[in-house]
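Can't paste images in this forum, so I'm doing it all in text. The chain is below; anyone willing to post the predicted structure tokens underneath?
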Amino acid sequence: MKFAQLGPIGAEIPALVTDSATYDLRAITAKIDGAFLEAGTAEVQRLLDAGELPVLEGAAEMRVGAPIARPSALVCVGMNYAAHAAESGSAPPENMVIFNKLPNTVVGPNDVVVIPKGSVKTDWEVELGVVIGKRASYIESLEAAEEYIAGYVVVNDLSERTWQIDLSGGQWGKGKSAPGFSPTGPWLVTRDEIDAQNVRLRSSVNGETRQDSSTSDMIFSIAHIVHELSQYMVLEPGDLVLTGTPEGVALSGRFPYLSAGDVVEVSIDGLGGQRQEYVAYEAAN
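Text version of the structure:
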């Protein structure tokens, strides 16, 4: 299944997206959140099969919001593709590099992004996002980890590299948590719909390709990530885990950083695509 949240900021409507129509889920849930995901999709399927889900009129003209309500945690894996580690000046990690972003960075996939005040090194990163479906703590095995995954999303893990690296103080959070720095969606696709460990992910800036790789190139697999995180922290339903980005970012030195007027597009096969226009802080305030 494909779930979306459509409409104005703060008033998004939960929806089911199919090849034939987009359906209004407000009779089932107020939003696509942890409680909805933990309950499962059986009731949605029953109503869909019975023809009892109302079509969401005008869906095609609505703003696309993030397909999950604000998670309680946004946990990220750094340098999880060997070529990206190399272009960042690092050897492939032997242990998972973990950092957090603020959950309020999650915005719609096509929302305008404001380049932070004073930023000169805003960078893009296409990533596969894992949405947790039930409380995960001390998962017993890699094989069991999949049971804790509700589905997958596209995320652009935006970064301000000066703040992340030069002014970091040893942590990456400064460069990762500016407003709008986690465009997410357009859809949350349930795990049964996609072979997430073997899909193509891409990014472009102003129509020019920047990243073009496959999730099969991850150093630490999706199952490994979810399993290992559960040994150190509790993941709640609706939480979002970012799994790393492949090579092809501005940090490599091969491309310029983002500036006002740029357009970034990112996509993952089966999960849809995003398009963001970037504006200067001064112009947006």
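The chain has a mean pLDDT of 96. Helices lie at 34-39, 42-49, 82-87, 142-145, 161-166, 222-232, 281-284.
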